[in-house]
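Lab meeting, item 3. Inverse folding demo.
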């Protein structure tokens, strides 16, 4: 399954709120529609979504794969042409969200979550790659984040991409008082980081397929 990355828009907020509650069920308070909309309007914030396109995209693909005579039968078999106006609009099923804030020359990841039913498909990794690339577009020197001390799976992904543990924020999470591990990358423009990043990106493509993005990238 190929997924597409693009900037989050207001119309995505309802799905984004659902993903946030799935990915962070104990978080309190959860973001609201209003707070998410304010984040999208903030020039220092950047939020993206990963989605799969449903609806007439699949119909179009099936139609394109038909032979010439099958297409004719499809178009004229019921006595009418296939009307573009009657095709349902494609539906973008959002499977993951991510975002960061710019703080001087630092991009601080504020969220990265994937639907429970869509995990273990490389989506979190795809979002992380996209965030790092977009942070570079914002002229960030490093990317930082906090992660629960108990979330070893997330820590392993971040460490894979060169994040290092540099501190602990005590009782950082208000819902249960759990500590947070503070992690940061080396300079995004360093040859060491870029060599590792590009290799991991290619490995991800080899395993899960091509990366798709509606956003221009200076790093890719």
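The presenter then showed the designed sequence:
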């Amino acid at each position: 399954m190929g997924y597409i990355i693009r900037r989050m828009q207001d119309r995505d907020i309802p799905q984004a709120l659902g993903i946030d509650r799935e990915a962070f069920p104990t978080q309190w308070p959860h973001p609201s529609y209003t707070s998410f909309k304010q984040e999208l309007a903030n020039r220092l914030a950047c939020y993206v979504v990963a989605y799969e396109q449903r609806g007439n995209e699949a119909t179009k693909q099936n139609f394109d794969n038909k032979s010439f005579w099958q297409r004719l039968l499809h178009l004229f078999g019921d006595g009418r042409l296939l009307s573009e106006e009657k095709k349902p609009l494609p539906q973008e099923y959002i499977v993951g969200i991510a975002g960061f804030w710019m703080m001087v020359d630092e991009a601080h990841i504020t969220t990265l979550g994937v639907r429970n039913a869509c995990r273990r498909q490389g989506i979190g990794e795809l979002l992380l790659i996209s965030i790092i690339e977009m942070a570079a577009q914002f002229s960030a020197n490093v990317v930082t984040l906090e992660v629960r001390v108990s979330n070893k799976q997330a820590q392993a992904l971040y460490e894979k991409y060169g994040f290092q543990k540099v501190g602990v924020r005590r009782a950082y999470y208000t819902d249960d008082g759990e500590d947070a591990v503070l992690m940061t990358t080396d300079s995004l423009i360093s040859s060491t980081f870029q060599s590792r990043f590009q290799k991991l990106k290619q490995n991800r493509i080899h395993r899960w397929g091509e990366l798709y993005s509606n956003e221009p990238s200076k790093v890719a």
